[in-house]
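Researcher: Checking consistency across runs. Here is Coenzyme A biosynthesis bifunctional protein CoaBC again:
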Amino acid sequence: MSRSPSAPGPLAGRRILLIVGGGIAAYKALDLIRRLRDRGAAVRPLLTESAQEFITPLAAASLAGERAHTDLFDRESEAEIGHIRLARDADAVVVAPATANMMARMATGHAPDLAATVLLATTLPILIAPAMNVRMWLHPATQRNLATLKGDGVAVVGPNEGAMAEAEFGPGRLAEPHEIADALEAMLVQRSEPRDFGFLAGREVPKKLAGRHVLVTSGPTHEAIDPVRYLANRSSGRQGHAVAAAAAAAGARVTLVSGPVTIPDPAGVAVVRVESARAMLAAVEAALPADLAVFAAAVGDWRPAETRDAKIKKDGHAPAPLALVENPDILATISARAEGRPPLVVGFAAETDAVLDNARKKIARKGCDLIVANDVSAEGGVMGGSENTVHLVARDGSVETWPKLDKEEVGRRLVARFAALLEARRG
Ligand code: C5P
């Protein structure tokens, strides 16, 4: 990508800490340094011990125009610039190539050297460009680590598919330097704030929701047919849980009313577990008052008219038709409260078609203040997936569409938006 000097891109004036892992692809890190500098960034290289088997600190330093850092107990470096400063003194961290070993360290918080220590200490946005043998990449352990890292807010570029050094073919090749630079630009445009882990809530994340009580519903409901069977909606709970986590990180007291899910409880959140829609409504009402209520649960619209106490037997006859009755609409019930309605009530709309039209109708029908709409048709992979493209639909019908983001980032952005809306209402 070339740019005229009059149109500086997102990397202009940015300081990038480039951590170079070991592996044959390390040589491409040198080209990456050059490209990042071409786009106006200042690059500080940090080479792991195994990276130095492939490229020298001198080569990296010459291209970067500043010294290359190398290991944790480098007295000179520690005196001059400690690892904590290295972890803070930049706008973003890029790890290229990120080896399987490096990803495992990052995912588990194991920090035996300078690179891993810096990665553990930093709250800057991180982009990793994995490169490894195809079997190592596809190994469940690496894929687990990848999922963990994404969950921690780490952005990933590549790996690309292609022929590998060991005469194998598949994903594992380091993304090209220009692709890494593009991904870094995209990340810097998307993420201007530090990754807000719950454990940092008290320090680095602006506590925009301090003193507020936030109520979130998440996950599916289960409507019992008999002791072993139930009706349910598809929902992993990931988006609702991410909103709850982000609200806690922003300083709110959070009550998360969750249907049955398999994902962990977010840190710093009071979780009330329920199964049915009626139990969810009761838990929501018990949790009020709240300053903000976000209804992200996929609540069953109907439940069996009757729940059998004993398992229905398969006795050779066609089963009796399942009579259904309507469940209470929790969002509509809370939105319509004359007393104790939260000042900001947000609904979700999962649609498979006519997303915006349906969301506009829904906001009027339900009486909420804002709808977060998304397309859950099979093509999008939103259901159970890690990413989401959302549209914010306001009461006046106006729509704001966000780019495809991971669900944690959607959660953080939604919370920032809700905080601003609450502040505007107060002011
Ligand atoms: O009508 P629909 O289910 O598409 O509406 C989705 C929105 O309404 C979501 O915010 C969901 O949490 C909420 N809802 C609810 N109670 C229901 C059905 C939906 O709170 N019974």
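Researcher: Does this match what you'd expect to see?
Model: One thing to look at in this run: The first helix runs from residue 27 to 38.
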